[in-house]
Amino acid sequence: MPESPEVQALAEFLDERVRGRTVSEVDILEFRTVKTRQNPPSTLVGRALGGAERHGKHVALAVGDDTRLVVSLGRHGWVRWRDSESGELPVDAPPALAEVALDDGSVMQVTDAGTWVSLGLFVVDDPLAVPAIAKLGPDPADASYSQNDFEVALGGRRKQVKAILQEQESIAGIGNAYSDEILHLAKVSPVVHAAALDDDARSRLCTATIETVRGAIDARRGIPIDLLKAAKVAAMRVHGRAGEACPVCGDTVRDFSFASTTAQYCPTCQTGGEVL
Fold first, then answer.
1. What distance, in Å, lies between the first and last C-alpha atoms of the chain?
2. pLDDT in tens, the chain (276 residues)
3. How far is Cα 224 from Cα 226, in angstroms, rounded to an integer?
4. Where in the chain is the domain with CATH 3.20.190.10?
5. What is the CATH number assigned to the segment(s) 147-270?
6. Euclidean distance between CA atoms 162 and 165, whole angstroms
7. According to CATH, where is 1.10.8.50 located in the chain?
8. Any coiled-coil ranges, and where (predicted)?
């Protein structure tokens, strides 16, 4: 699942390449991606692009002064950039569901690797017209994000903190992978409820959230967008590392499944030695 560090790198990549260019053609290969049927992406042909920005796990391309093409990446969505120097695609490359061609011959291909279409395209006058963006909570990548924002998200809720970290309405941009990394850095169990955290644990968790998100954004910046997933995987300390040694204490990283999701964690660092 795309998360804020990689989506931020994607937005910056697109901002450099689309700013000042004109849309020459739009080809929708999967009609289910279009979520604004009254205002389809084809209406953008002939219009100039003003840049790109991130909203949580979504990318918005400015079209003129009053329109945005929002790409909601969903669970497996991504963007592939094709220009005159692009080579052949790997045989296992995910299919393009939509293509936006620009006046310099480059093409932005929107892809989805899942077995069902999770990706969405919206043509709106304001990103907040996209329901998922309108509901986003504060973003830890923002310089203004504070301990108070984090406390509002946690509250005294009897809900597992891993689920809260991934709850876009509470904290924007974090998914399964970075929630595991945050919890490991903070030395907090993935199954503990927010209401059970003491002040020290809450402070550690807030600090770990900000450091993990902002640190990953800095680390991903400038990496070619087709290599971002591999860079993310390589940087993980515990997520996806079940059976390997914890880089902090050397204990074996464990895998735990619950509530239709999974978590990777270190028993020594996070659960007092208890195997979940």
1. 24
2. 799 999 999 999 999 999 999 999 999 999 999 999 999 999 999 999 999 999 999 999 999 889 999 999 998 999 999 987 676 667 678 889 999 999 999 999 999 987 789 999 999 999 999 999 999 999 999 999 999 999 999 999 999 999 999 999 999 999 999 999 999 999 999 999 999 999 999 999 999 999 999 999 999 999 999 999 999 999 999 999 999 999 999 999 999 987 778 899 999 999 999 999
3. 6
4. 4-134
5. 1.10.8.50
6. 5
7. 147-270
8. none
| Alpha-carbon separation of residue 134 from 46, 47, 153, 168 (angstroms) | 28, 26, 16, 10
Amino acid letter, 106:
S
Q: Specify the residue for token string 């640190």.
A: 215
CATH superfamily of 4-134: MutM-like, N-terminal (3.20.190.10)
**pTM recorded for the entire structure:** 0.94
Spatial separation of the C-alpha atoms in residues 244 and 266, rounded to whole Å:
10
